[in-house]
Amino acid sequence: MIVTTYDQFLMSLMDTAARYQMRFHNLCDAVIIMDEVQSLPCRLWRPLEKIFNSLVTTCNSRILLMSATLPPFVSNAVPLLPGFENYFSNCKRYVLRFRTKEKLSIEQFCEEVESRLPAWGEGNKRILITLNTRKSASKVRDILAGPSSTTTGTPVYFISADVTPRDRLEIIKKIKAGKPCIVVSTQCIEAGVDIDMDLVIRDFAPLDSLVQIAGRCNREGEKGRCQVEIVDLVDEEEQRYSEMIYDSVHLQATRDLIKATPEVLEEDVLELSNCYFQGLFSKKDTGGVHLKRFARWQEDLPVHELLRGKEKMLHNFLVIHQDPQLKEDMATANSEIDRWKRREAWRKLAGRIARISVSVYARPGFHPQQIADEYLGHWILREGYYSSNRGLLAEGEALIM
């Protein structure tokens, strides 16, 4: 059994480098399970359709694609559940309510949230607020959990990539306890986080992301129909946070669909999603040129860039106080003379390193040594730059995206 990331899987499938092609045989005579396939960018749709069909017909493999909103890039995919449309039509857990005719600043948004808190408190609400950027999420979290906030008595939890996986798991345990709370998050909560909230408020995003986050609203279906509110947030310069993150074609396709529809019931989401993906298929570059280059062994963009876009400067920091013994164990691993034993020793530490790591995409001018010390190829975050409640704390926030 191999558990891996999209990056490593697609590079083994498409990258010409020897180190990736040496893994390719593992994809033959295999069952390949891909979760959240709606996250694959459009420019990979056509190449992957042909490659997946070849894996099935030539390499005797089977591919299971999983998603709440399945894109149509594999035209001959067969649903494992006959009549699955009936399940969607019987789901009546939430309503998507679009409040996107007017833009809201973060300050206006927080004022509105605080003004509604008394009414929510009477019903012991569990509220999820999901933002598009770390900066906007941190700002909302700080306002709602600040000393002047009216949320006193209601815990405010924060989930983003600025928080270590170790702390995120602890926070999720607290949320799952079922008590009233406010959760402020980035879109990292959209997939793989099984929580049940009474109300979800989401900054505008492409339809597939909105459907993903709606899956956290009244997840067990025991509360009647709950609301998922979609707002349109802007920064100080009136720029939409959604446009900082998502493709403009995806955003516009969503806006076109909801233009005359202020509300969408959950039972109508499947039809809306099909219209959304068909619209993208007709308007968006689905990768025809990349398919030709791949088939003809011509030079093309790196697979990682096709998947993630142009790479930004990424810095990874270790919050070492969460695993004090790790530093000593890293030194022990590094002291192995035999390179293969040294490599294996570091591999055994990989899980512990990942659990206490935070990563940031930095703006030009930011240097990791401003907030961390280098140790055996890793950056150890200095004391005072991390909080379990707020995540990464860096002086000069303008330096970090």
Brief write-up:
This protein has helices at residues 6-14, 18-21, 45-57, 85-89, 106-122, 134-144, 165-176, 207-214, 241-245, 248-258, 269-283, 288-295, 303-308, 325-334, 339-355, and strands spanning 31-35, 62-66, 94-105, 126-130, 156-159, 181-185, 199-203, 226-234, 263-265, 314-318, 357-361, 372-375, 378-381, 386-387, 391-392. By secondary structure, the chain is of the alpha/beta class.
List keywords for this structure.
Rossmann fold, 15 helices, 401 residues, 38% helix, four-stranded mixed β-sheet, alpha/beta
Outline the structure in words.
The structure is a single chain. With 401 residues, this protein is α/β, with parallel strands linked by helices. 38% of the residues lie in helices and 19% in strands. It is built from 15 helices and 15 strands. The protein has helices spanning 6-14, 18-21, 45-57, 85-89, 106-122, 134-144, 165-176, 207-214, 241-245, 248-258, 269-283, 288-295, 303-308, 325-334, 339-355; strands at residues 31-35, 62-66, 94-105, 126-130, 156-159, 181-185, 199-203, 226-234, 263-265, 314-318, 357-361, 372-375, 378-381, 386-387, 391-392. The chain has a 7-stranded mixed β-sheet, sandwiched between helices. A 4-stranded mixed β-sheet has the order 11-10-13-12. A two-stranded parallel sheet has the order 1-2. β7, α8 and β8 (226-234) form a beta-alpha-beta unit.
